[in-house]
């Protein structure tokens, strides 16, 4: 075994970027990337990168960052097409074709001395000093050492399909389509002057009623589900302008949330989707994989002991990754219940969307788009404030909370709840417990942020499922969350304690 050889399993963004950055940081190490898909053949269409991710890439390697920026397609805000719709202008993110991103990273890795082999390998085949398993969400390395990595895989019951279209939308667009079988939702965004990603999701019941389980079963391994693409092209004919959706090994999938109690074992280190995933609705998988690569390469540069470097990498990355996984978890649950909110007035729905994951409060959203928040306040209280009033957190809070801070009344049923998945089985149980009640109040001993967000989500479900008037207890520190929950139609009343 050579002390300096590094093997990377997987030539996705995480593996290729790790190879490039290790070449840059440790020129004496020989890096080989093994990728079993032929050069240029990859799944998917475009991926989004935020300004903050681009900043990390600039700092780690200005050369590849500049190439990525050059090839990227600028974001131009978003368009939520529900009811009268809401358009937000301005964005500092970019999107880039996955194949383009990979070819930039591949060239950079080669220029920095890495070798890239078209080969399928397993960690046990390799005798390199260090094996970086960047072999994606279905990582065979993780699966074979599942107990050693303490790996957990949670597979969603909803379905999504990653398709494309041969034109550039003006901006990121979210659009539901009600069909006799149920609701399909598009998350679409342009990623080049003539291409857009069209990610389409639906629930398991709609999928089966539409017979897409049958078309899925007929689709050969490695092919696209052309029948589904035909059907969805018709469903989303308006936004597609009559064009047909494009496939690239496009078929229905269920999102797998991966987490691992340990990211390394012996000389094997997990990186990117192999170690962790975060729901696609926050568009952060590529970011997390590439930032993992930055951290691991820096740790390898700073210590000659690979085990110590792997430990430092995990210590540095785990809290950041887990934060994103928490945010993604809220976003995931929000999207699952999205079809239930289609009758909300558009400004409220947009406020609900922006505050869905808890990382952006209504105040923060109002600082950038006061016009939307002012419209949402107008819907809630009947009088639209000025944009200036909406932008000021104190005034916003006063307007929204006036008449909506209350105590549970004598006929109110009070339920103590902890942090739970409002739209999962635990939420189902609370709905059953509360059935028949028209006035509900949610309290609970836990006043942590996660518990408050879960209470808001459960309150929303009780409002939607039972038509009940629902109040919640929140700590004073969660005032901004309470304002957001009222503006998003999640709760009717709040009591501060
Ligand atoms: C629908 C959808 C939409 C997404 N949208 C976004 C987005 O907007 N923004 C974003 O940042 N991310 C997005 N992502 C996530 C993103 O695509 C992944 O998180 C990212 O690609 C992870 O990079 P990775 O390098 O860890 O793994 P991957 O990109 O999966 O790469 C793994 C590579 O390993 C190869 N491989 C696997 N096993 C072997 C083996 N044994 N031998 C050799 N090669 C092997 C595979 O062929 C593959 O090329 C999205 C994902 C999905 C599913």
From TrEMBL:
Species whose genome carries this gene: Pseudonocardia broussonetiae
SUPFAM superfamilies: FAD/NAD(P)-binding domain
PANTHER family membership: 3-(3-HYDROXY-PHENYL)PROPIONATE/3-HYDROXYCINNAMIC ACID HYDROXYLASE (PTHR43476), BLR0106 PROTEIN (PTHR43476:SF4)
Membrane spanning stretches: none
Organism lineage: Bacteria, Bacillati, Actinomycetota, Actinomycetes, Pseudonocardiales
Protein name in the entry: FAD-binding domain-containing protein
Keywords attached to this entry: NAD, Oxidoreductase
Residue span, FAD-binding domain: 124-324
Record InterPro entries: FAD-bd (IPR002938), FAD/NAD-bd_sf (IPR036188), PheA/TfdB_FAD_monoxygenase (IPR050631)
A molecular function (GO) term: oxidoreductase activity
Pfam family for this entry, one: FAD_binding_3
């Amino acid at each position: 075994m050579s002390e300096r050889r590094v093997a990377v399993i997987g030539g996705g963004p995480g593996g290729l970027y790790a190879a490039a950055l290790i070449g840059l940081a440790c020129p004496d190490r020989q890096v080989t990337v093994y990728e079993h898909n032929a050069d240029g053949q990859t799944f998917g269409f475009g991926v989004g990168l935020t300004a903050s991710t681009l900043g990390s890439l600039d700092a780690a390697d200005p050369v590849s960052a500049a190439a990525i920026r050059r090839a990227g397609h600028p974001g131009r805000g978003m368009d939520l097409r529900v009811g009268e719709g809401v358009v937000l202008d301005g964005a500092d993110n970019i999107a880039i074709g996955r194949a383009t991103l990979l070819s930039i990273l591949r060239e950079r890795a080669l220029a920095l001395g890495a070798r890239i082999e078209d080969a399928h390998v397993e960690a046990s085949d390799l005798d390199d000093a260090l094996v970086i398993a960047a072999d994606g969400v279905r990582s065979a390395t993780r699966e074979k050492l599942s107990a050693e990595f303490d790996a957990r895989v949670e597979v969603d019951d909803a379905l999504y399909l990653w398709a494309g279209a041969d034109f550039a939308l003006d901006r990121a667009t979210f659009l539901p389509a009600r069909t006799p079988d149920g609701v399909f939702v598009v998350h679409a965004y342009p990623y080049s002057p003539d291409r857009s990603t069209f990610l389409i999701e639906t629930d398991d019941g709609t999928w089966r009623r539409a017979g897409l389980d049958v078309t899925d079963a007929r689709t050969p391994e490695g092919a696209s589900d052309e029948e589904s693409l035909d059907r969805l092209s018709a469903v989303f004919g308006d936004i597609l302008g009559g064009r047909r959706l494009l496939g690239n090994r496009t078929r229905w999938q269920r999102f797998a949330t991966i987490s691992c109690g340990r990211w390394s074992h012996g000389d094997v280190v997990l990186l990117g989707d192999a170690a962790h995933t975060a729901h696609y609705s926050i568009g952060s998988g590529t970011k997390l994989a590439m930032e993992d690569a930055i951290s691991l390469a820096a740790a390898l540069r700073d210590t000659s002991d690979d085990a110590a470097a792997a430990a430092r990498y995990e210590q540095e990355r785990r809290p950041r990754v887990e934060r994103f996984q928490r945010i993604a978890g809220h976003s995931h649950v929000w999207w699952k219940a999205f079809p239930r909110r289609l009758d909300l007035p558009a400004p409220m729905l947009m406020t609900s969307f922006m505050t869905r994951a808890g990382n952006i409060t209504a105040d923060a959203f109002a600082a950038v788009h006061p016009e939307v928040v002012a419209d949402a306040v107008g819907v809630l209280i009947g009088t639209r404030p000025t944009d200036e009033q909406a932008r000021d957190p104190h005034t916003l809070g006063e307007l929204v909370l006036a008449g909506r801070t209350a105590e549970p009344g004598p006929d109110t049923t009070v339920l103590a709840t902890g942090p739970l998945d409002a739209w999962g089985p635990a939420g189902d149980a609370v709905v059953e417990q509360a059935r028949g009640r028209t006035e509900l109040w949610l309290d609970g001993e836990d006043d942590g942020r996660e518990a408050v967000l879960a209470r808001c989500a459960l309150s929303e479900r009780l409002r939607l499922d039972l038509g009940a008037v629902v109040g919640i207890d929140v700590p004073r520190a969660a005032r901004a969350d309470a304002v957001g929950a009222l503006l998003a139609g999640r709760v009717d009343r709040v009591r501060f304690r």
